[in-house]
Design a protein that fits this description.
By secondary structure, the chain is α+β, with helices and mostly antiparallel strands. It has one domain. It is about 50% helix and about 20% strand. It contains three helices and three strands. A three-stranded antiparallel beta sheet has the order 2-1-3. It is globular, with a radius of gyration of 11 Å. The structure holds zinc ion. The site of zinc ion has 7 residues, from helix 2.
């Protein structure tokens, strides 16, 4: 199941969308994006909680 996180839902004013095949990978990619695009050096537990709360399953394209 593909996981999707809209960067905007995490709280950034950003149209970025992160997709990955697992929660762990998605979290990793969001952390990298937050660092490179938003200058967030460390991902706090609060940010992790936020990302997890806005993470959605993307329906497979039939
Ligand atoms: Zn972003």
């Amino acid at each position: 199941m593909t996981k999707v996180v809209n960067c905007r839902d995490v709280g950034f004013d950003c149209d970025g969308v992160v997709r990955a095949e697992s929660e762990e990978e998605t979290l990793q990619l969001v952390a990298e994006h937050a660092k490179s695009a938003h200058g967030l050096e460390t991902v706090s537990p609060e940010v992790v909680d936020k990302v997890m709360s806005v993470m959605r399953d993307e329906p497979a394209i039939a």
